[in-house]
Amino acid sequence: MNNVSINEIQRFSFDDTNVRGERVLLNSAYQEIIKRKEYPLPLEKLLGEFVAAIALLRDIIKIDGVLSIQAKGNGFLSTLMTECDEHQNLRGIAQWDENQNVPDVISLKDVLAGGYLAITIQPRNGQRYQGIVEIIGDTLSECLEQYFSQSEQLPSRVWLAANGAQCGGLFLQRLPHEQSKEGDEDAWERFTHLASTVKEEELLGLETEELLHRLYHEEEIRLYDTKTMQFGCSCSRQRTMDAVMSLGQEEMREILIEQGSIKVDCQFCAEKYEFTEADLEDVLGDQAKVH
Ligand SMILES: [Zn+2]
């Protein structure tokens, strides 16, 4: 399976219950993201969990727009973010203090020291919505479960794994009580208990049908269509120019004097953008001529 692209997410539900699930498994889309920088393996793994998580969220929170998860803190990891748009384009990045040793097993709570997780929903047309979760757990799964209980008030469980080649996730959620059917409580307990037995190599190595069969061979499961995901960056010349303009006239002028133009490399995809004085003429104003 290592050589075949498998970047898929699939929804499923258990017959006669109100429990639904999602399973994601990504390889080349994930590899595209981590190869942009020289990440130490523990960070590749952590970033992979974030990528799997955004893919799951993308399918749960259905909006026409961009969804992102961003972790920020004061530890050796300053930022970790992943994003997915409505066309299943994924991108992500981590920034860390390269002078410090990266622990083999990363605890989110430790590496982000007093940090938080922001989940942002940015519809194409409409109000941006942001949910903030204080990071009190060691894992992203714990933080996400906390987010779901806060924002959707639905019992939800998340399992995530990544190994530098593949990343994957499994999600279970019990839908609102008024719709629930008899025996639901037991079913939820049973399904989450069985999912808790999932091993990393199963989450990363088995195709969805096989994984679900291994966990739930006694249950009736309905599988929905798979969706393909891919690496994709939403940067553009205009968006980059907006970011450059936010530096302010004075700083833009200084860079132009020193370097002749303002060069920006997209950190997500390495695309190079360059802006000359002529490009920025309108924002710099007349008195700002540097040459
Ligand atoms: Zn880009």
Automatic annotation (TrEMBL):
Q: Where in the cell is it found?
A: Cytoplasm
Disulfide bridge partners, by residue number: 233-235, 266-269
Please verify whether the record's keywords include Cytoplasm: yes
Query: Where do the coiled-coil regions begin and end?
Result: none
- GO annotations of cellular component type: cytoplasm
| Keywords of this entry | Chaperone, Cytoplasm, Disulfide bond, Redox-active center, Zinc
Query: What kind of modification does the protein receive after translation?
Result: Under oxidizing conditions two disulfide bonds are formed involving the reactive cysteines. Under reducing conditions zinc is bound to the reactive cysteines and the protein is inactive.
Q: Does the keyword Metal-binding apply?
A: no
Its BP terms in the Gene Ontology are: protein refolding
Note the Pfam families from the entry. Answer: HSP33 (PF01430)
**Signal peptide (from-to):** none
Instruction: Check the record and name the Gene3D superfamilies matching this protein.
Output: helix hairpin bin (1.10.287.480), Hsp33 domain (3.55.30.10), HSP33 redox switch-like (3.90.1280.10)
Per the record, the major location class is: cytoplasm
List GO molecular-function terms, semicolon-separated.
Answer: protein folding chaperone; unfolded protein binding
Function text: Redox regulated molecular chaperone. Protects both thermally unfolding and oxidatively damaged proteins from irreversible aggregation. Plays an important role in the bacterial defense system toward oxidative stress.
Tell me its family: Belongs to the HSP33 family.
Q: State the name under which the record lists this protein.
A: 33 kDa chaperonin
Q: Which organism is it from?
A: Marinomonas ushuaiensis DSM 15871
Give the gene that encodes this protein.
hslO
